[in-house]
């Protein structure tokens, strides 16, 4: 197994530390040796100088003593000789003082009894001393002797030997100390340096080696995922190489991740189509190309018709499925129909798609493509065991005819699409500058609506709801009207939506509710039968938890019994925000107010919510009634709704009754109520009251003539 980076580091650190310590020791050792040498030389010199001093002192002493001894020796005066010798021997370092006669025998040694008298000395210095005719100094390790011949004229009458004990002569002055002595201090220093080295090594390990080791291991695991080109085993790769390779690898991976991220950023997750961002980029690029080559570019803005209903009734999962399939079909159309260059489809958001085509005569080409896109939705979508029919509205605009930049082009496409919606949906429309005027109109309308709410320009009209069996008016639907100062009558289909969008619906709803309730109190029939008023509720109103409270106080204020108020809600409103809507509706129901489902049959919803909310009636949408006589499906559906209402014991109201034939058919189907232009257009409160009075008068007259006849 190969050593890890840390192990290798510590081995290296130990070797470097040891080498450093050894070199330091060697250096110190050498220094010390040379210091010892110089100290020794100095000490030797000092010794020599000291010895020379001693020698001079000894020789001088010997010479002086010899001078004093010549006469006593000559006259053999042993007493004087003794005195002279004793005087010298008193000096502490003088070891001996001996006088020899001319034959070399001991004459006197300074002692009283001269124990060695006449002996011939045989020590190491003796022979030379006995024989010398001149002053002679001899030195041994311990002793220094000065031999001084005693000369009387030319005659040598004896020899004085003066011996000095060098150990006592104090020749050794204080030795010069040796610097860097090999003492304990020295070890301390080495220890401290060693410790410093260890601490430094530890610091380097923490600061550099460990992060590097971490890098290395990370790099290893990173590279384990990818074979290293030209390297058989990771073990043989150096840390630097490894990290280098890993960095390269990481850069590759990052680049890959970056491109993947970009891809995801530009793609719509649900449909897999390019998204809004991708569209903007593409549009900018296409416009640039078109500007350079003076080409044409067409933009198709698609919005699915009433897609919200699918989401509301079948749930968002199914909605998502449908959107994905729609996207797939559009992409298919483009691959088959679209021109090879510059064709592009993107999801713009929600249920909106945008198609670009760049080719000569792009506007004409766009119309053909729009047809193909419309046809692509002909086949029903099979979801949740139902056949869903979907359509789209398409707005077409082009560069350079309608706009010069991307933002304006998209805006134009949106406006043209809006025109297609207004023209009954499932169609395409080209942008014209007049449409911009229309869009601006909406803004102006918003502004005017706010003023209208304050200025009393809103009015409530009433449309009779007729009991089909008796032909008598049982109630009326309250429909808001706006008499615009310059536009004339603005239809609610135009401004109710705006009121919802800009947050005016609460005020508008409250106004209609109060007006209708106050009005309905005064509705009398000749037989005093209670006549109801049906008020439309918007989705937004239903979501307001204060709604039941608001309705209660209006009823109390106007003293209208709750049974005479019906509230109309749409299926989608019911499913939009279930919990809030259900609790409000339950509360209203508890008060005794009837809830009717408006535009029934156009939603995709099942009948389950009829059970969940206590619905008292359904209003069959006028699209069924319109084709009642020509379309057997509509007839069957209307029949089914009426039958269902009957069995659920709820009311069925047919909307949009425009002809006598329709009325007859509905009566045959046993539909309970009818409403429509044939039975009475929406009218002012005064007109409705007059209509009621008229009907009462007719009935009263008919009753009277009947009783008269009876
Ligand atoms: P809705 O509740 O379905 O009202 C019936 C609509 O059908 C009314 O249109 C009425 O004028 C129209 N209509 C009645 N009989 C016939 C007929 O025989 N043939 C045809 N073609 N149409 C007929 P209007 O008044 O334009 O109202 C449109 C929609 O605006 C209403 O549909 C309702 O959803 C909404 N709305 C009207 N007033 C109010 C209101 O006060 N509050 C709320 N939230 N919505 C309202
Ligand atoms: Mg209605
Ligand atoms: Mg309706």
Task: Write up this protein.
The protein is an alpha/beta fold. It has four domains: 3-42 and 175-249, no CATH class; 51-165, Beta-Lactamase, CATH 3.30.450; 276-431, 2-Layer Sandwich (Alpha-Beta Plaits); 444-698, TIM Barrel (Alpha-Beta Barrel), CATH 3.20.20. The protein contains 22 helices and 21 strands. The strands form four sheets. The chain has an eight-stranded mixed beta barrel with strand order 13-14-16-17-18-19-20-21, surrounded by five helices. Helix 4 (184-224) runs parallel beside helix 5 (239-265), helix 7 (307-314) packs antiparallel against helix 8 (316-337) and helix 15 (547-558) packs parallel to helix 17 (578-590). It is rod-shaped. The chain starts with a helix and ends with a helix. The structure holds ligand C2E and magnesium ion (2 copies). One magnesium ion (MG) is lined by residues 598-599, 619, 655.
